[in-house]
Amino acid sequence: MMRKSIIALGTLLALTLAAGSVMAAERKSVEEVNKQMQALSGQQVELRGEVTKVNNGIMRRNFIHIKDGSGSGNSSSLIVTSQGTAEIGQKIKVVGTVKLGTDFGMGYTYPLLVENSTITVE
């Protein structure tokens, strides 16, 4: 009986450690997410940046545009979706999942989003 308990505890510990490593968000700049989007697809990332635009309550989510001073042109900003929101000019921390090729229909297509994000105003 003791052996089965030890094996079960070991299995639980291994599953907990594996889940923890899957859930860890890798800190990236806005430019890095834009340039590495294929490799980051489906992975959680952590970003910090300044809010440049906010569209709340669109398709049951908020769309928040951020910049962090990295990148130029198309690689200088990102759109994150969240149930939370922020105001233009606020510095925020975002943790969310990189999603490619999102098509909401009716002309709303996004090649790159950071979805289901948690937002912390800093």
Describe the structure.
This protein is an alpha/beta fold. The chain has one domain (25-121): OB fold (Dihydrolipoamide Acetyltransferase, E2P) (Beta Barrel), CATH 2.40.50.140. It has 3 helices and 6 strands; from the N terminus they run αβααβββββ. Strands 2-3-4-6-5 form a 5-stranded mixed β-barrel. The radius of gyration is 18 Å and the shape is globular. The chain starts with a helix and ends with a strand.
Per CATH, the superfamily is Nucleic acid-binding proteins
Strand proportion: over 45%
Number of strands: 6
Helix proportion: 25-40%
Distinct helical segment count? 3
Rg over CA atoms: 18 Å
CATH architect. name: Beta Barrel
Summary, kept brief:
This protein is α/β, with parallel strands linked by helices. The protein is 26% helix and 48% strand.
Which helices and strands, and how do they pair?
Layout: H1 2-23, E1 26-27, H2 30-35, H3 37-40, E2 44-58, E3 61-67, E4 78-82, E5 91-105, E6 108-121
Main traits of this protein?
122 residues, alpha/beta, OB fold (Dihydrolipoamide Acetyltransferase, E2P), 3 helices, 6 strands, 48% strand, disordered N terminus
